[in-house]
UniProtKB/TrEMBL annotation:
Membrane topology, record value: Peripheral membrane protein
A molecular function (GO) term: steroid 17-alpha-monooxygenase activity
Protein name (record): unspecific monooxygenase
InterPro entries the UniProt entry points to: Cyt_P450 (IPR001128), Cyt_P450_E_grp-I (IPR002401), Cyt_P450_sf (IPR036396)
EC top class named in words: oxidoreductase
Signal peptide: none
Naturally occurring in which organism (per UniProt): Bos indicus (Zebu)
GO CC terms, sorted: endoplasmic reticulum membrane
Amino acid sequence: LKSPPEPWGWPLLGHMLTLGKNPHVVLSQLSQRYGDVLQIRIGCTPVLVLSGLDTVRQALVRQGDDFKGRPDLYSFTLVTDGQSMTFNPD
């Protein structure tokens, strides 16, 4: 499969520095440049970013089984001491 477009990111850090304090604004700008489906990296972990109502609806409603589950990102476990409901795999 062909990977979605991805902006340049820092080695090992990925796009964490690029996202800054307003990741929603940066992701919106990236989607205007790269389209409704793009990939970023949080550290070395690839993350698929979906923008636009039709694209999100396609992913969540029509292809929900392909997108279910939550990311297993070590950085979130480290920051939340494993207690975050947001990234709980259950």
